[in-house]
Design goal:
With about 500 residues, the protein is an alpha/beta fold. Helices cover about 25% and strands about 15% of the residues. It has 13 helices and 17 strands. The strands form three sheets. Strands 1, 2, 5, 6, 7, 8, 9, 10, 11, 12 and 13 form an eleven-stranded mixed β-sheet that branches. A four-stranded antiparallel β-sheet has the order 14-15-16-17, with helices on one face. It has a two-stranded antiparallel sheet with strand order 3-4. It starts with a helix and ends in a 20-residue tail after the last helix.
């Protein structure tokens, strides 16, 4: 009897060991909002402190030539989650519905029913999935509800217009409004420079800071699911304007910069200390990364959890943000809403102890629509049809196994309509296609001209037909006229 009990116990123990060894890795993807390429320490930032992202990079890998799929919020999130580039994506622009007041909350164009997302892919692979932060792909009553698009749990903003305030009256939790201790703040109400008082600036402050609420729910999700594989998508709303941050975080920067109040003349909420607030917001985002990293370690999940970090597009041009002061693009041309490098090149950091070698960097041109294929490889499953390649070999140092591609493709139908192609060291771009379908190609050699200052198209005319052929191959007609600006039959231009 004793022998049978011993053997049974040994069998159970071996089963636990086997399960631990074969359990799929946890995946955490942290997504910043309007964070510039060079606004964190790993990418050369000098004025803003990001110690936790510095550590994430030092203990993992950061990619130097990594791109978002398109330069604004909602379509970037759609392309990330569906693995599609701008010529194939269902959502290609910020198609807004409703208005800013709570009573008019209407969200953005929803994902259609049956969309294959990273969430649905990982659910089928046995993952518990959570999305916490900014959604922007449909309200709870629509087909775009995150609970219908591959996420077992959702908490945050459904409507990205609501996220213009970091002190909203409510956030959403699995289709139900979660009331916060904030009154409605009209963040698009400017102040008069002649009469503004401290009390006027205080109007834009609240009690419950949305970022804190998101992190609280994120830590609960991790704790609740620590015994099974989980995927946590964390699209924080920071440092997107409005410039709102708790006073405790703001104080660490006040006095460091020569700054003047921002009164809301370029949209979004006024801020007495705009430079300090922006720096503090990025440091606050960094502190959330630290909270997540420390929790994962304390639960003993470090070696079986990959943590990744990126942003949806480049630094903004409004709301009191001073991209030049912080060298937010690191010398790259353009900002949010541009297909120049400053609008689409983004940080990408990945850490996975024991799997990703520490302290590495990569020059592989890569893009967020690669994430579906990459996460499928991490989970050990085949990826659904998508436009990307897996970056896992590059991450783990197995460079000989890294799939290659000929080019990266970008389309953006807003701001006049633009297309861009990255092919090796070359970057081809067209702007203003809605007004001028025959707009000429601009061509830049990024190996010598990362700032895209010298258009060399005239010296390389033989290359231009290749880019035309790529457009004809990659562009599919959009499902609404507002996003259709490319006419393949007439795209064989200069």
């Amino acid at each position: 009897m004793v022998r049978k009990t011993f053997l049974l116990g040994l069998f159970v123990l071996q089963g636990f060991i086997s399960t631990a060894q074969t359990r799929k890795p946890n995946i955490i993807f942290i997504y910043a909002d309007d964070l510039g390429y060079a606004e964190t320490g790993p990418y050369g930032q000098q004025k803003i402190k990001t110690p936790h992202l510095d550590r994430l990079s030092a203990e993992g890998i950061h990619f130097n030539q990594f791109y978002t799929s398109t330069p604004v919020c909602a379509p970037a999130r759609c392309m990330l989650l569906t693995g599609r580039h701008g010529g194939h994506s269902y959502i290609r622009g910020n198609y807004e519905m409703g208005g800013f007041p709570d009573s008019l909350e209407g969200g953005q164009m929803p994902l259609p029913e049956g969309t294959v997302t990273i969430g649905t892919m990982l659910q089928k692979a046995g993952y518990t999935t959570g999305a916490i932060g900014k959604w922007g792909l449909g309200m709870q009553y629509s087909t775009g509800d995150p609970n219908r698009q591959g996420f077992d749990y959702f908490y945050g903003y459904l409507d990205q217009k609501q996220s213009h305030s970091f002190y909203p009256t409510h956030l959403w939790e699995n289709g139900k409004a979660d009331s916060l201790r904030n009154t409605f703040i009209n963040v698009h109400q400017p102040l008069s420079p002649a009469t503004a008082t401290d009390a006027d600036f205080d109007y834009y402050k609240g009690k419950d800071y949305a970022i804190d609420e998101m992190t609280k729910k994120a830590t609960q999700f991790i704790r609740k699911n620590q015994q099974r594989p989980f995927f946590l998508y964390l699209p924080y709303t920071i440092p997107h304007v409005s410039l709102q941050v708790p006073d405790s975080a703001l104080r660490q920067y006040i006095g460091q910069f020569n700054e003047k109040p921002y009164y809301g003349q370029q949209g979004y909420s006024p801020q007495k200390y705009p430079l300090s607030a922006y720096a503090a917001m990025i440091t606050y985002l960094d502190s959330q990364v630290g909270i997540i990293m420390n929790l994962v370690a304390s639960l003993g999940l470090d070696n079986n959890t990959i943590i990744m970090f990126s942003s949806d597009n480049g630094t903004t041009f409004n709301g009191g943000v001073d991209a030049a002061f912080f060298n937010s693009t690191g010398g790259l041309r353009g900002l949010k809403m541009d297909l120049y490098e400053g609008g689409i090149r983004e940080p990408f950091i990945a850490r996975w102890p024991g799997k990703i070698p520490a302290g590495k960097s990569s020059e592989l041109p890569s893009v967020q629509y690669d994430l579906m294929a990459t996460l499928a490889a991490i989970a050990g499953i085949p990826a659904p049809p998508n436009d990307g390649i897996s970056l896992l070999p590059e991450m783990t140092g197995k460079h000989a196994q890294q799939p290659e591609r000929k080019y990266l493709y970008f389309e953006y139908p807003e701001k006049g309509g633009a297309i861009a192609i990255r092919m090796g060291k070359w970057k081809a771009i067209k702007n203003g296609l809605k007004k001028n379908p025959a707009a000429p190609w601009e061509l830049y050699d990024l190996s010598t001209d990362k700032g895209e200052e010298h258009d060399v198209a005239a010296a390389h005319t033989a290359m231009l037909p290749v880019f035309n052929d790529i457009v004809n191959k990659e562009h599919r007609n959009a499902h609404i006229n507002e996003w259709e600006f490319i006419h393949p039959k007439t795209s064989k231009t200069k």
